[in-house]
Every structure is written in C-alpha cells, then in structure tokens.
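Complex record, two chains
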Amino acid sequence: MSVVRLFGAPAAPAALLLRAAHALDPRTGLDAPHDVLVRDGAIAEIGAPGSLPAPEDAETIAGEGLHLFPGFFDPHVHLRTPGQEHKETLATGTAAAAAGGYCGVVAMPNTDPVLDGAPLLRALIEQAKQEARVPLGFMPAITRGLAGAELTDMAELRDLGALGFTDDGKPVVAAGMLRRALQYQRLCGGVLALHEEDPSLSGAGVMHEGAVSARLGMAGIPSISESTMVARDAAIAAFEAGRVHFQHLSCVESVEALAAWKAAGAQVSGEASPHHLTLTDEAVRSLDSRFKMNPPLRSEADRQALIAGLRDGTIDCVATDHAPHARHEKEAPFEQAPMGVTGLETAFPILYTDLVQPGVLPLGLVVERMTAGAALLDLPTPRIAVGEPANLALLDLDASWEVGARGYASKSANACFEGRTLRGVVRLTVAAGAVVHRAAVEALA
Amino acid sequence: MTRHLLSIDDLDRPGIERILDRAASFAEVAGREIKKVPALRGRTVVNLFYEASTRTSSSFELAAKRLSADVVSVRAATSSVTKGESLKDTVQTLTAYDPAAIVIRSPHAGAAQLVARWTDAAVVNAGDGKHEHPTQALLDVYTLRKRLGALDGRRIWIVGDVLHSRVARSNILAFARMGAQVTVSGPPTLIPRGIEALGCRVAPTLDALSEADVVYALRMQNERMEEAYVPSLREYAARFQIDAARLQPHQLLMHPGPVNRGVELSADAIDSPQALIAQQVEAGVVVRMAVLYELLVGTDSSPRPQPTEAAAVEAVATA
C-alpha cells in the first residue's frame, strides 16, 4: 500500500520552457546551461541551451545567467496551525517556502492542541489540500501532548500519512520512553526526529553558555545539554536497530557524537540550520530577541564544526526550523521573548552569501544538502531528470536583496537576517509540477 | 557622553572621570543647608521600577529632586506578563509626559536598551536582570577614589555569587577601566564560565585574599541554596564569608547592600572601620545627580529642541 504523505492545494500543471539556465543537480551530475522543458508538470526534455523548440502551449522563460536547482526540501518547519494562526498559517508558511525555493516542507506538531492524534491529522491534511502552496507533510508527536509519558497511536497516524514522529520543541526526556518508541517503530516505520536537550542541564537558559552569557548575565544553555542526549539516543537507536534523525544540531560535541555513531553503523542522521551555520552567540551581545532560538547560537568553534559536518556529510541536510512569532511577542526583553526565528525565505541566500561566495562550501554541496531532507523521510529526492515531476528553483545568484525591505511572505517578521543584503533571488519555484512562486519584477533590480 | 547610560561600556575612562568630578561638585552642595540646584527645573524624570528596590529607587528620586526636576515614580508589577501591560506600552504611556529621562530597573537583561529604542528621553539603566547596574559601579568607583585616589594598580577582589550579580559585571568593567586589577572568587557553581573575558581573573579560594586592597562582597541569596548552587549557607560562610579573621587591617570592605549579616559578611566586618558601606549609600545620591546632569545638561547648556505644537498635533493625526 502506497500512502500519500505530502499534501497541497491543487494547481495547474506547469508547461514551461526554461531557456539556457545553468542547471545544477549534484545527484545527476548536471552542471551547465541547459534548456529544460516542463510539460504536464513533469520534466519532459533536457537539451543543450537553445536546442529545444519553444512549444506554443508552453511559457518560455529566459534563463540565461540564472541557475536552476532541484527544489529545496525542508524537513523542519513550524506552521503554528492549529492554535497560533496569528504567527503563521498553512497558507502563509507554504507561501514563504515557495518564496524560498522549496518544493516540500514538513510541519512540526507543537501546535495548540498538539498534533498527537488521528482526528487532528485528518483535519490538517484536509486543510493542506485547500491551502498549502507547496506540498506539506506532517510529523505528529511521539508522545501524547509532548508530555513524554505515553506513545501516540503511531501506526494509525502512519496509515493516515504521517511522515514520521517528533516531540520537537521538547526532548523525549526519559530514555525508556524513547526506547519504547523505537521498538514500536518496527511496526509502523517512520523516522523519529529528535530535539535533543537535557532539561536538567539547559534549565532556565536563554542563550549559549559561554563568555557572552557571562558578560550579559543571562542563564546559559551548555552545549552538553544537547550533545549528551545525542550520544544517549544514538546508543538507544543502535541497540534497537531503529532510525533517528537529530534536529537542529548546534555544537561540536553533537557533531562528533553523530559521526561516531554513523561510523559504528547506527541509522542516524542530522540536520543543521542556516542560522547555526552562519551566526554565533556574538550576535546576542545586541540583546536583540531576533537572535533568540533553541538550540541557541553557539561559539565560532561550534559553527565551524557544523560547517565541517555539513561538508563531510556527518550532517545530512539543512533544515530551517522556521519558527514564526508575532512582532509583539518578540518585542520584549531577551529573556522574556519566545524562542525561534523564521528561515524559509532566507535559507539559500544566506548560505550562498556567507558560505558559498567566500569559498567555504561549494555551491553543489549546498544544493545537495538543501534537498537531502526528503530522502531521510523516505520521500523521493527532487531531481532535474527527464520523467521526474518538476520540482525546481530558478535563482539569480548575481542579484541581491535586502532582507525584510519588501516584507515577507511569512506572516511573521522575526528573521534574524533582517536588514542584511543577500545574494541570490528566487525568481521561480516549481513544486510538484506547478508554478508556486514568481518573484515580483521590481525585486529583480 | 552618550545619550543614555545603559552599560559601563557606554563610558570610557574620561567619561567615568567626568561623572565622578561632577559628583564631587554636587557633594559640596550636599553639605549646604539647601541642597537643591536648579539644573533640571521644569523637566521631568520618570523612575520606572519593575523590581523591589529601596536604596536605588530612593537615591535616584532624591538625586532628581535635588536637581529640581519633577519626579514621577512608577512601581510596576512584572508578575503577570500576559494580563499586564507590556513594557513597550508602559514606556509609550510614560513618554506622553515628555520626560527628559527615564530611569528603569527591570528583572530582565536588555530592558533599558529596549526602552531607549522606544522613547526620546535619556534612559538610565538602574539594573537590568543580572546584566548591569552601571550607576552602582560608578558610585563604588567614586567611593573608592575618594578614599584611595586613583585606582591604577589597586587589587580589588569581588567575592561571592558572581553568576547572579549585575553589580559584579558592571563593577568588573568599571574597576578594570579605571586601572585596577580585578579578581573574582566564590563557589565554582556561582562563577560563570568565561567571566575572565570581562577583564578579571578567577581565584578558586580566598587563600590569596590578603593581596587585595579592596574586598567587595556580593549579596548571597537564600534561594541559591534551594537551587543547589551551594550545599548550605553554613558551608558558604565557612569558605567565603568575609569576617574579621579574613579581613586585613589594610583592606577596605565594600558591599552593594542589602547585607545578609552572618552570611557573606560577619557583623564585626560590617561594623569595622574598613567598611565603606555607608559611604557607598551616601555616594549614591551625588553620583546619580551627576549622571542625570551629564545626560540632560552636560557641557552643552542649550535646551533640547522641543517638538512644536503643530508637529505634535500632526503626529497624533497620522498615528
């Protein structure tokens, strides 16, 4: 039985000829200007630049000087629905994804009420079929109410379309509880995505524990609150031959633990966020609540370890942990403000500007890591190949834009890169065969 | 001087010295029968206190009154963040009184910085969370300078709960900026990782305390024991209390108050001639006068441009 696990609003299948854009797909080896013809929402032909005749029923888009990537996939976003629609809705969150070049995103269950049962999952799937601009998947909770005490009806949820399970926002504190979930995974499948944090170590912390927290007098979250849990849960997963995915890794020790357990053959994977890859706790000196998130921005050594982990594949993919909050909620002293930053609209441009352009990471590697999340959830990887559904992002890497200057597609504006001028404008996004985003012409200056 | 006093980092050494010199001139006024000067006549100072405070709030109030300002003191509860008015709304409400300065005490780091973003008034940080308490540091430097002269090369030990102390942070910065060598000491659970970056060294015990010219004891709160930072106040006192045996005759003793007698300080240490605790309180008024004066009058005596009535009406109409 093949279960559908991504859901979106119906849209007309695209008919497009993308003329002479530099197509880059690290998995197929494509890395040169090509014509790409999309017909009935699928990639129909790929040819040398200028070689494909323009069909009368297809729109031709001049792609000279632009880059064409497989559409990005984000396994970790918060769309705040139900319960906190003042921060984000399925419609606005997926519009933000489309604007960022994404062809698929996965919503976390820490909503109000928590996504921990079949009725709510059914309702959200129906809502996604009405509202979601890009295909949207759901990860219900591992434990009811994220309380860490009882398993959700994981098998029933999987049959309905759950991609996997997570208590994201909270750790599964009890090792025995996680072990039960991993045992049950043998029945229902689905990766367990883990937010790793030992609350007895993180306590009331609001930022990374280090010289900056010492200076600011704010309670710190030590790196070991994450890394000890990564090591523990990788060991439990290995023991049960289960599969876990570590969310938003933030520190050296976590990357080391993940590398060690991968080397030992455990089925473990990991993600890192664009903000952890490009910022450190030095940003918190401003006491600006836009730099408050969990896990916190850490030291430069931690950031370098994340970059190295992404480069060598210890960290499998980039995930934004897009976490919208309303302006009035973030306009508070740092310690009182909620944790989280938006990220869908800035993910590729910040990585391109801060890591690719200075030569820290190759472009192809960043594209690979921004699309690798799909396979971790047993979904097909977006590819630029004949016969594949069209999941494409067309970008102008020479154009730049100021983050926030024209507002956001997201309902919230808590972007930690607001005000930065970034290279890389998403001109067109095609998701599941339909055009879901076109940059406004004035944004292309 | 900057427009606000949010952190000791807002002041370089000459900036600190200017405030201390100004405070010394106000100290002469304090000796007169009529202690007021007309510097801030007709201007309003708002004291916005989100935390219980006796000495800081009363000394700011007295400082503003001695400068002839109109003073509004607001004590706000933070207990109900959800049902209460947000900090931003409170500040905007108070800004309607057109204050020249807002003095804010908050349990949260960075609150003063936020207030500065939301108002045209000069903002004075009267303590924000465990972050900073710059006027305390200034009055401590003033007190020491009066007693010792320049602080260059002086060894100052700050002892106790550094982790939870905004006084410690501002004082490490201010003492170091004035040329002193600062050492912090206390139970390892109460010394934050990375504190050396502020410009101090860490001593794990008081074994070398005799080298200090000044011993600055911090308040040790009962809840630290409940939070398991220390096993007991008894053990804390045994290792870190400043008592007559530990305090050498050549050393000066300071404390930001209020003191827990018998915990961080013994009664005989408090009452010893080396203790400057009463002088610190006394310095509070003149130093805060000097801070308000430097921010609101400074060397430039021309009045601040006031928005015209027409502009104000227009602002309301377009709001």
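Note: The mean pLDDT of chain A is 97.
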